[in-house]
Prior knowledge:
- By secondary structure, the protein is of the alpha/beta class.
- It has a domain at 115-215: Vaccinia Virus protein VP39 (Rossmann fold), CATH 3.40.50.
- It contains 7 helices and 7 strands; from the N terminus they run ααβαββαβαβααββ.
- The protein has a 7-stranded mixed beta sheet with strand order 3-2-1-4-5-7-6, sandwiched between helices.
- The radius of gyration is 20 Å and the shape is globular.
Amino acid sequence: MNGVNLRVMNDLEKYFNNNKKNLIHKWDHYFEIYDKHFSPFRNKRPVILEIGIAQGGSLQMWREYFGKKATIIGVDINPECKKFEEDGIAVYIGSQENREFLRALKKMIPKVDILIDDGGHTMNQQITTFEELYSHIDNNGVYLCEDLHTSYWKDYGGGYKEKGTFIEYSKDFIDYINAWHSQQKDLLDISEFTKTTFSLHFYDSVLVIEKRKRNKPCHHMTGMQVIDG
Length: 229
């Protein structure tokens, strides 16, 4: 049995492998990540926002996966993507690196339960989208940015340890989530990110951020002390 993958194929993989509708392009290992973080929202009333529509296939996939009660919202810079609107799927046309557009978008759509950044994958696009839309994720929502391998590709503004890549930018999130424990003044000013972010999950090419309201961490002891000191 050595080397045999016994993981059961999830519903997203089944949909993808049997897809006869619009084109979907995904890395194979993404489906396990999606299902792990998205499954709690299934068959409820989640608001799903996907940046980057391409051929519209993933919008149809999310519609099938999350159920008919879900609201699916797509954003793309290509006006042709407006044709992918259907019952339960809305499409907005604009650039994800245009802060004015993203700020206007927040006024037009409800709070988002899941945001999937599958847009242009440049450093400025990923960073701008995070900075403008993270606050629009619901208190118990999920922010997923994919195709982070572009942080290592020169054509997208990336490069190993290159300043200004989304990978280098997001490494600071590790400090922010631990800021309550810092003894240095640079982190003593607790940010909204620290107060609303529960966990960070780094995968190959993917970062998943899970939101949750947090108070300052505290600890307790129970039981009897049996060793001096």
